[in-house]
Amino acid sequence: LADGSFRSGSNTLAVIVASWQHGRLKATVETPEPREQFSLDADFSGAPPFGVRVSAKSLDLTSRVRLSRETNRWDVAGELYWKSNRVELNAEFERDGWLPKRAELNVEQFTVPAQLVRLEGYKNPTSACSLKWEDGHFTLDASARVLPQQTNFAFSPPMEVSLSARGNLRSVVVEKLEITSPAIRAELSDPIGFNR
Question: Minimum mean pLDDT among 50-64, 113-127, 155-169: which range?
Answer without folding.
Answer: 113-127
